[in-house]
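ASSEMBLY PREDICTION REQUEST
Request ID: AP-0331
Submitted by: J.K., bench scientist
Number of chains: three
Total residues: 1276
Priority: normal
Notes: Please return the full assembly, not individual chains.
Input sequences:
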Amino acid sequence: MAQLNVTDRDYFKPGHLGCPGCGAAIAIKFALKALGEKIIMVIPASCASIIVGPYPQSAVNIPILHTAFATAGAAASGVRAALDMKGDTETTVLSWAGDGGTFDIGFQSLSGAVERNEDCIFVCYDNEAYMNTGVQRSSSTPYGMRTTTTPGRDWKKTRKKNIMEIMAAHRIPYAATTSIAFPEDMIAKFQKAKEKKGGSRFIHIFASCATGWGAPSEMSVKIARLAVQTNIFPLYEIENGTRYTLNYKGDRPVEDYLQIQGRFKHLNKADIAQIQKMVTEDWTAVCRKTETAHTG
Amino acid sequence: MKQVAEGSQAVSEAVRLAKVQVIAAYPITPQTHIVEIISEFCSNGTLDARFICVESEHSAMAAIIGAASSGVRTFTATSSHGLAYMHELLHWASGARLPIVMTDVNRALGPGWNIWLDQTDSLSQRDTGWIQLYCEDGQDVLDSTLMAYRLAESVNLPVMVVLDAFFLSHTYEPVDVPDQEPVDKFLPPFSPRFQLDTDNPGAFNQFVAPQAYMEMRYNIQTAMEQVPGNYSHIAEEFETIFGRQHNPAEAVQCDDAEIIFVTAGTTVSTCRQAVDRLRSKGEKTGLLKLKMFRPFPIDLFRQVLSGKQKVAVVDRNCSFGASGIFAQELRAALYHAESPPQIFGYIAGLGGRDVTPETIEDIYWQTKNADSPQTENIWIGLDQETIESWRN
Amino acid sequence: MTDNKTPDNKIPLFLPHSSASTALNKTGSWRYVRPLYDEKTSACSAACPAGEDIARIEMLVSQKLIPEALETILEENPFPAVCGRVCFHNCEGACNRGQMDDPIAIHHLERFLGDAAISSKETPKVDTLPENGKKVAIAGSGPAGLGAAYFLARLGFGCEVFEAQSEPGGILRWGIPAYRLPREVLDKEISRIAELGVSIHCRTPITREILGTFKTQYDAVFIGCGYGRAVDLQIEGAQKAINGLQFLYNIRARHAVSLNAKSSAAVIGGGNTAIDVARTLVRLGVDPIIVYRRRRQDMPAFDPELQMALDEGVKLKELLSPIGIKDAAGDSADHQPSYVVTLQKMKVSTTKIEGRARVVPDGDKTETLQIDHIFAAIGAEPADPWHNVPSGERPSLHLSHCEIVNSDVPIAYGGDLTNRVKSVADAIASGKQAAITLDTYFKSGWDAVNEAVAGCQVGPGPTVSMTMYLGKEREDRNPHIVSFNEINTHYFKSAPRTIAPVLSPQDRSQSFLPVEYTLSKEAALEESRRCFNCGICNACDYCRLYCPEMSVIVENAGRHINLDYCKGCGLCVAECPRNAMALKEEDI
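STATUS: Completed
Returned structure:
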């Protein structure tokens, strides 16, 4: 790319089945720019399963193992074990799951895998609901969002599960949040993850879904940018579960982010204030951990 | 070399001899000895393999699917609820055409919690596209496991090798554990017909529209139909090398028998004893051991049982609302036979309740004394007082 | 058993395995809007009277393509080194970056490029048409006349410029002091115009009679004689005041000027000439006071110039208007002030004229000023009446920066004679507009002129572009002016404007050396990188980076959208930092 520290080369082919403006497709594009082709992807049921092409097509020159919804962590572990037995130390195993396959149905196998410190990169591309099956809520759905299973006045009133803290609790070598609106940061983190061989690495990607979030397709990147700028989705890294590094300090109010998405349009001023309070609380907690990491 | 070994040990020795490369398993009584022995093998270097201590049976099968897809020989073992938990992925393994071998220790499904012999767990999986082989004793277990790898890798379908809880898994018997060399002759290293390969990339197991799905399913059925032929070729070779014969079904004194027992597992060896006893009293009885349950050896059964008078099927399982599963399958298999026998279904020994030679003799007399079956099944050995108490 | 036994009977496998490319799937069919590269007009280029393609120029500088940047400027303006010193840079006021932090230092960058063109070994090439055999006479070698000559010569006309003074340049040479515009810079830019084949005849004033003969010798005439005569004070003792313009001329012509050092001077007026006179006086050791009838904010002079003057020690007296000049009593040998000026105090009236405050006498209040010298710089007018655009004659074409009498031999009037804003840049604009108009007339007649002029306007006009007239790529530029709201400021880090090194006021007041230095190449590069490049594609590649369909194709010739796969999501258009793209509905 002309003025960016990003390779021109793409490993993701057009003709894939992502919606126009699909944030998940952009996430795949960036991840592969960082990782190249010496990888095996394990994809549990999710939007990605469909995006990468139906039989007999594939959108990548990379071996993909599609697996059942709950199994990303375990299947990736099996692939890794086999590669180790075959003496292959070069190939990276990349588990590519959505929020369902990471936070909910896939939670157990992910926890099992990272507790065993399996030598894989576990990615969660997060569109904050079960998008592939029609926008039903997941435990990654944020407080305030309407989905098809939290409709009308039953909009979700529990907080988004903090998957990064859960990964930290497993003390894995590396965990990081990324956003499709910050490509250089995302690509650098994937490269960092690739180099940290020998243990579990977790990358959480904020992957906008214009289709499911009630926004025009051209807003995908802007929404992903605002998520970071409002501290709703902070960019940070956790090494070995204890050392926190903050990559970006946002300074915009949550309203800037909420008001441009149909999924939040039912919220009134009090709701927005409540969300601001919760976001500030979580942000303060992350900042505090960053400070103690440096002084501790 | 002949050893005194329990069934679990026999399984583990076979896994070692087969040079399995990746094992993933979750402990469940009474499979636990298998995973413990194999763990020990991996730890002390007897077996060069990666043992993944997964956090559930569902993940065990998922990990094995991942490993098999990457082109290595794999193994797992489970029982009862563990097998039920894996159910989704049993379909997946066969649909993915992976030559996985798994041991299932037949154990009852709860509630109530029951750790003893019951065949319903494995038989509930009969629609998943797995080949199923039932074992009578420790030798049968070891030999079947070795043959299972050859068979699985020849048709690209997974194989379940089934043994009875406690009666086989924890029972010590003399077992001839072969040397590595003849096993290597019989079972060469795994040569995958496909695998995840960065030099030859492709996507496996993705979204398939109606236009192609049905043909893929037909390919599975075609492979299943290939199994009996492949199995007999493999069993023949096995007999040549190791001197032991294991047929998909074994007919014992069936030629002139008027009543023939059909059953599987350790119940078979109980039956052998009962048949000998009845023969010594002049009764014309025989036994048809069911070893291969999937694919059901229709031709063989028709061959042996056509023209016979009566068959007594001993099911240590039940498909509620229908009947004992072996009986049900047998009735279906013999429907188109020339002069099929009358089929009497008996349900016995659920949840570890003992089936003795006396039980078999009792079944014989009930069969002989009835002109025709009055019901789909007769439940043997129920405690009448208990049943009366709930009826009143 | 032999080792080479037949393998177990393996039937062919048919399982879900894919290796055909999704590229077989032409997702372009999903689209109902399509993106395209749609370069638009930058606010700065629309504000520039010469219509310089500023956003593109700064982009080229930032890409270190200095020769290309020079050519881009010279296509529209033959005097970048001059303008980079004397232009009042409307462009910076319009600069969108100014709404984020500081506007781009376009003025300094123009100077940098102008100086680079002068010092470059090769003359930068500009587009020219073959000679068309027609000849044009041009009266006046100021920025309007020389501008007209430059553009007419490029369009294939043979040009002869007639100048009354001994050297060409008009106001550039004779009106603007050396500390703002050094002689050498002007000479070099004028000679570059001459190199196009333009003949410049100095000491050859044109009279009305000679103008008559032109009608038989030339195919067209351009009159750019400017405002050659100063307006006199209409008060008692007006003759005691020195003509400010004449004074500047004398300095430039190196005529002797009798001024005592440390004497005082009053400069009547509020325009640039008044400032120039005052600052020149400082450099001659005189103590000047500018006396203006309105307030500082009402002065037509460029305020930065005024501020520099004040820093150099010039004083300002506001709301005072002279009503009489008398000789002072006393002996000049005692070094008494030579004159007494009576000044009427003025006050701001409540009504306004054209946005400027109206001032009225504040009753009878007056004050007196005792002063050695008085300079009048209250305005100028054409030196001869025939310089003016005639009224009531043959029908005229009235354009924004010139008027053309469409007789058999068209006579075009431009520069200060026709421009509402009397500036160098507007003068150049009038030369260009006249050239384009004459070329259109000779090729297609008067009726074609309005359409031709409209077709090469920058944005909504009235500025015209030579590049567009010649049918180059800029012709396709969307005339929509990019506003600040259309810029994605996230893509730009706040950075202060580069400051051009400036002599200190003390150093400045000692000499006529240039007050400001030209930016160094490093400073120019750094400053050019701050430019948003509003509406221009600078190959930042964000469109390509974000396209989820990998459908932005970059080739040597530029970039385009792969319509086989583009789903019309619009991300490229939304994320373009500088609004250089657009979405268009598909015909369904």
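REVIEWER COMMENTS: The interface with chain C takes residues 95-97, 150, 153-156, 185, 193-194, 201-206, 208, 215-216, 219, 222-223, 226, 229-230, 233-234, 237, 240-241 of chain B (CB under 8 Å).
SIGN-OFF: pending second reviewer
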